[in-house]
Design goal:
single chain; alpha+beta; 2 domains; 3-stranded mixed beta sheet; 3 strands; flat; disordered N terminus; disordered C terminus
Length: 154
């Protein structure tokens, strides 16, 4: 069996997902299946009471699912709205991943159900940080002067 990527790391992991992306991005099928996986996972998190004590009474939002080009691995981006402690739940999510994968197999009509890899979604935190930076008086002054190239304050 030949390895598609010549690195010494495990083939098919999340790093291979990024390496396998073409410059044009994921295919339409990857996007469609990724969205279907996201929808089913979001439904499972909303309707399931997990036996794992770390996940009981925890509200998890699945924001995005990115599939590897071979559809064998999926990176699942999760967040807890209003809280920034989702990273502490990653070990518990890894423990329930096989059960979630079984549930996906029952609900999806795809040949191979991908192995799930959970990552915290930090996009909202990053956007809020950028917004707070843009509101700084120094930045507002620079942005205000950028358009007209004259200083009305002098």
């Amino acid at each position: 069996m030949s390895r598609r990527h010549g690195s010494g790391s495990k083939t098919g992991g999340p790093a291979d997902y990024l390496a396998g992306l073409s410059s044009s991005g994921p295919s339409q099928r990857q996007l469609r299946v990724g969205e279907e996986v996201r929808r089913v996972l979001a439904e499972l998190f909303a309707r399931t009471t997990f036996r794992d004590p770390e996940l009981s009474d925890v509200s998890i939002t699945v924001t995005e699912v990115r599939l590897a080009p071979d559809f064998k691995h999926a990176t699942v981006f999760v967040t807890r709205l209003g809280r920034s402690d989702v990273a502490s739940l990653l070990p518990a999510l890894k423990r329930v991943a096989p059960w979630l994968r079984t549930q996906l197999a029952h609900k999806l009509t795809i040949r191979t159900v991908p192995e799930l890899h959970f990552q915290p979604d930090t996009a909202l935190d990053t956007a809020m940080h950028v917004d707070s930076l843009l509101r700084l008086p120094e930045v507002q002054r620079d942005l205000g002067n950028e358009g007209d190239h004259q200083s009305d304050e002098d």
